[in-house]
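Colleagues,

For the teaching module next term, I've prepared a clean inverse folding example: a structure given as tokens, and then the sequence designed for it. I'd like students to try predicting residues themselves before seeing the answer, so please don't circulate the second half yet.
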């Protein structure tokens, strides 16, 4: 570590503009990545400040020509310091280049026109407003009704929030302005949050909530920094506990980040935080432009806000004195990045909290095995919220054995029990949700005579049939005309094999022609705002039945839903990776939590071919601990995370031969060293083989896995693999790493 690469102006465009300096001997032991240092710069050797991005043994040019670092600013409280350190940790942990890691943690600087903050203000008195509301309802002007309802309760709303989360279009707002229902003002909402937490609508925590909140706040006040796991079913009041702790943290003048999976980041959730913390709260979501995102980060940097709510990337909000990170639904797969570095927000948050001296609260109804194991091991402190707030009871859960249905001669995708329950709900005017863990009209299209499967010409996957007589590839978007004739043998008995959401919709419409049906899946939500539109239409009772993929089971409240039907629960059990049971359990538990939240009694019917599987059984019994014990035993036996650690190494190339050759050579090199015990004990290499999808977009994919009991072993092997790929660079070959992968390849 004799040389330091230093950046003097941090911004995305400048990340590769570093300058190399010599590290004087007396600094060699103390200097580290992220340090803020003083260096002589330019011809005049003016003393300026910069950040250490990398430390290396190799000089990029003649060492005699390099200048030396003058001093290290040891008391650096600057946020960049921490973010660079975090990037360095991400690079080491997940494998990536420093530049890629930095690009993730540093906001993209884009000059945007200063945007005025607008807000919407109600202009009507309460009587008039009430009349107007009734009129909107009568005319089925649901967007207007929604906005007016919210204005009556709030008086004033943030413009951006209304368009982004309440899903009311600017045109509608304009029309209502013309009707003199509201006016648009160029002011920010919620000016004053000095009385945060003291609002009339703050709830009185119950004993379990109080126990969790007080213990965490006591720890924080006495300087103890920990990670906490709150295990509580949906509706058990976790969010109230988060808010109580956030309140304590901002009172100390520190800041908080709240991560919520984008799909669960609903208008209601954001409103709750806004009501409690006023304009100290800001929100991020993926539809923000780079410029808007940068704006939000600047507000955080200037200290204008204290709480940032958002999905994974909100973690990198540049707060000066971060006191708390909350990760709601910590088990969600969306907390892991798909791009290099493939970081997990949970682990990264804990590292970031460490750098800031902050605390972390994880919350979930179905904690990841990773988090729960650490809680049982005492590394995290565990709190359990066992009761639902109010009278909301847990729904009754029934499991239907689809094998038995088939034996009884029922070949439809609806068992007798589900059909009967649906009829009942429809006749009572209650709502129904049908959940299918698979999208599209149907699965693969194949010939029943010769077995031929119609595949994508660019990917090793079968095409799926979609409405409008099209066949589509879900990986690359390739489309072709549908066909009634087998291209292989000419037979007419070609057909779609498996049920998809579109097919469910068709069948439901056939069974209950009088019912109105909404469908939510990747196809119906492709358009901007369509996701929110479907949800609000359903919550306004504009439809009786909502059919959908996992999107519909995540974090939405529909008080009139009294029946949740899970069509083929074991579909997700057959995904073929070691997390399939965990994912299935989570989905089923969540689905079961959707019904019966209000005073109406809820029922859940789970249809499955594997009623005896522990993931199905435990979900039906809402028995998390039972599931955990079974699953952790299996993982321990097989050495899968969290019992051990894994690394997926994927080699991609347009040439199948090159991909295979390179992947095999890399695997051989590593295997040789593993056998010699060079990386520490217990490591094993599995493969290489074709990836599950062996080709995507004409790129071939070869894969092997490494398993080891210790993370340190995995890190050493990955370092060795990275060294190999650095030294054996080949054009057209890409190797990528995924530590403790959440999905199969
Ligand atoms: P979770 O985050 O676990 O799903 P929430 O915090 O959203 O649960 O609570 C569910 C509902 O119960 C919310 O409407 C919330 O305002 C309400 N609630 C939570 N705690 C209490 C309480 N102690 N007293 C009254 N209502 C509460
Ligand atoms: Zn055929
Ligand atoms: Zn394709």
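(Answer key — instructors only)
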């Amino acid at each position: 570590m004799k040389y330091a690469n230093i950046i003097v102006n941090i911004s995305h465009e400048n990340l590769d503009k570093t300058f190399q300096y010599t590290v004087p001997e007396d600094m060699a032991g103390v200097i580290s990545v992220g340090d803020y240092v003083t260096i002589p710069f330019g011809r005049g050797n003016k003393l300026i400040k910069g950040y250490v991005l990398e430390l290396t043994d190799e000089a990029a040019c003649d060492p005699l020509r390099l200048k030396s670092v003058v001093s290290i600013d040891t008391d650096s409280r600057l946020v960049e310091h921490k973010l660079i350190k975090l990037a360095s940790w991400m690079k080491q942990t997940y494998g990536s280049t420093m530049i890629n890691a930095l690009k993730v943690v540093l906001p993209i600087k884009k000059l945007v026109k200063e945007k005025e903050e607008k807000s919407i203000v109600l202009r009507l008195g309460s009587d008039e407003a009430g009349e107007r509301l009734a009129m909107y309802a009568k005319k089925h002007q649901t967007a207007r009704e929604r906005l007016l309802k919210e204005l009556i309760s709030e008086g004033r709303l943030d413009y951006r929030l209304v368009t982004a989360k309440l899903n009311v279009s600017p045109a509608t707002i304009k029309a209502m302005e013309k009707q003199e229902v509201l006016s648009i003002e160029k002011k920010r909402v919620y000016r004053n949050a000095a009385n945060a937490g003291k609002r009339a609508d703050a709830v009185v925590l119950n004993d379990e909530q109080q126990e969790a909140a007080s213990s965490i706040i006591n720890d924080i006040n006495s300087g103890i920094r920990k990670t906490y796991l709150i295990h509580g079913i949906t509706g058990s009041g976790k969010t109230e506990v988060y808010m109580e702790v956030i309140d304590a943290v901002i009172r100390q003048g520190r800041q908080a980040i709240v991560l919520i999976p984008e799909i669960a980041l609903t208008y209601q959730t954001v409103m709750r935080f806004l009501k409690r913390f006023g304009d100290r709260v800001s929100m991020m979501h993926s539809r923000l432009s780079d410029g808007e995102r940068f704006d939000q980060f600047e507000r955080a940097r200037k200290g204008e806000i204290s709480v940032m709510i958002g999905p994974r990337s909100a973690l990198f909000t540049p707060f000066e004195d971060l006191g708390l990170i909350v990760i709601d639904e910590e088990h969600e797969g969306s907390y892991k990045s798909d791009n290099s570095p493939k970081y997990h927000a949970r682990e990264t948050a804990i590292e970031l909290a460490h750098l800031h001296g902050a605390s972390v609260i994880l919350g979930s109804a179905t904690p990841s095995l990773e988090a729960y194991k650490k809680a049982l091991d005492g590394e995290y402190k565990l709190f359990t919220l066992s009761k639902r707030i109010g009278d909301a009871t847990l729904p009754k859960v029934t499991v239907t054995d689809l094998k038995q249905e088939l034996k009884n001669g029922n070949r439809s995708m609806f068992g007798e029990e589900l059909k009967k329950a649906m009829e009942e709900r429809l006749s009572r005017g209650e709502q129904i949700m049908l959940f299918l863990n698979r999208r599209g009209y149907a699965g693969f299209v194949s010939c029943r005579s010769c077995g031929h499967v119609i595949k994508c010409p660019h990917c090793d996957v079968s095409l799926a049939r979609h409405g409008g007589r099209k066949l589509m590839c879900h990986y690359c978007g390739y489309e072709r005309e549908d066909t009634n004739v087998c291209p292989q043998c000419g037979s007419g008995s070609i057909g779609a094999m498996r049920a998809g959401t579109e097919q469910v919709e068709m069948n439901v419409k056939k069974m209950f022609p009088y019912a109105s049906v909404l469908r939510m899946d990747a196809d119906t939500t492709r358009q901007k705002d369509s996701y929110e539109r479907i949800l609000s239409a359903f919550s306004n009772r504009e439809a009786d039945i909502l059919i959908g993929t996992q999107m519909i089971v995540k974090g939405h409240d529909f008080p009139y839903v009294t029946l949740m039907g899970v069509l083929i629960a074991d579909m997700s059990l057959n995904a073929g990776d070691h997390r399939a049971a965990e994912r299935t359990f989570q989905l089923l538990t969540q689905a079961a939590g959707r019904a019966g939240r209000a005073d109406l009694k809820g029922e859940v019917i789970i249809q499955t071919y594997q009623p005896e599987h522990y993931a199905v059984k435990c979900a039906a019994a809402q028995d998390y601990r039972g599931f955990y014990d079974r699953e952790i035993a299996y993982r321990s036996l097989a050495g899968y995370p969290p019992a051990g650690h894994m690394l997926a190494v994927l080699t991609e190339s347009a040439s199948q031969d090159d991909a295979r050759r390179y992947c095999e050579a890399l695997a051989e090199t590593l295997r040789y060293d593993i056998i010699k015990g060079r990386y520490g004990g217990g490591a094993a290499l599995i493969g290489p083989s074709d990836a599950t999808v062996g080709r995507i977009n004409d790129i071939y994919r070869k894969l092997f896995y490494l398993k080891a009991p210790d993370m340190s072993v995995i890190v050493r092997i990955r370092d060795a693999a990275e060294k190999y790929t650095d030294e054996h660079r080949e054009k057209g070959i890409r190797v990528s790493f995924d530590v403790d992968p959440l999905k199969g390849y």
